[in-house]
TrEMBL record, chains A, B:
Protein name as catalogued: Phosphoribosyl-AMP cyclohydrolase
UniProt xrefs under SUPFAM superfamilies: HisI-like
Species name: Iodobacter arcticus
Functional summary from the UniProt entry: Catalyzes the hydrolysis of the adenine ring of phosphoribosyl-AMP.
Organism lineage: Bacteria, Pseudomonadati, Pseudomonadota, Betaproteobacteria, Neisseriales
Required cofactor(s): Zn(2+); Mg(2+)
PANTHER family, A to Z: HISTIDINE BIOSYNTHESIS BIFUNCTIONAL PROTEIN, HISTIDINE BIOSYNTHESIS BIFUNCTIONAL PROTEIN HIS7
Length: 131, 131
């Protein structure tokens, strides 16, 4: 039995994935992956997901250049969630141009932006030659 | 509009929640919460979830004593995932008696247990008087 068979895929054939900075421990992103995406991630050590909005395999960084080098894959007790331990190329995981997608914090019953934009998203997308 | 209305609840009225140790940064758990659970978490600063297997509100620690003191709630760019930044009472988040639910790592195409059991689960559950 393959290690991939041990993953409990949901009714859509997906598994939730937490992308975590392997050094700082910061959670950078949350997305879903299908079997092909997880297999490719393990084989090539670069994060692949399944984009639910675009309904396709997504090699993170293919548009932005912000690839994620994967150093480890972790698995939870229930067998239905993964963590990719990553190094974030360019230091930007979020499509808003921020380090992490989790840039809002609840303060006095309001979501407050607690992270700055590192790079204007309009300069990130539309080019495949970003560092 | 309440901050709770800004959360994009899924078709079951749930939102995925990542529980992260506020000091070490380790991801300890992944679960789901409904509106009531998130509201209670923010109000009482102790983690609440919705258990999909038991279909009920779940005050983490109610059986094990392993409550999670919540110091911050973070929110992602798409508005559909939360992080609870927590202090894990007892140092055990997982029902297997381990620190984290993510105790398996992919090594040479196998899921290898890379975390030890801190406490026998049979001694954790069945008592509500654990520290």
């Amino acid at each position: 039995m393959s290690w991939l068979d041990e993953i409990k895929w949901d009714e859509k054939g997906l598994v939730p994935v937490i992308a975590q900075d392997k050094d700082s421990g910061r959670v950078l992103m949350f997305a879903y992956a299908n079997r092909e995406a997880v297999a490719l991630t393990a084989e090539k050590n670069t994060a692949h997901y399944w984009t639910r909005s675009r309904q396709k395999l997504w090699h993170k960084g293919e548009e932005s250049g912000h690839f994620q080098n994967v150093s480890a894959i972790q698995f939870d007790c229930d067998g239905d969630v993964l963590i990719y331990q990553i190094e974030q190329v360019g230091g930007i995981a979020c499509h808003t141009g921020r380090s992490s997608c989790f840039f809002r914090t609840l303060l006095n019953d309001e979501w407050v932006i607690t992270d700055q934009v590192i790079k204007d998203p309009s300069t990130i997308y539309g080019s495949t030659n970003k560092p």
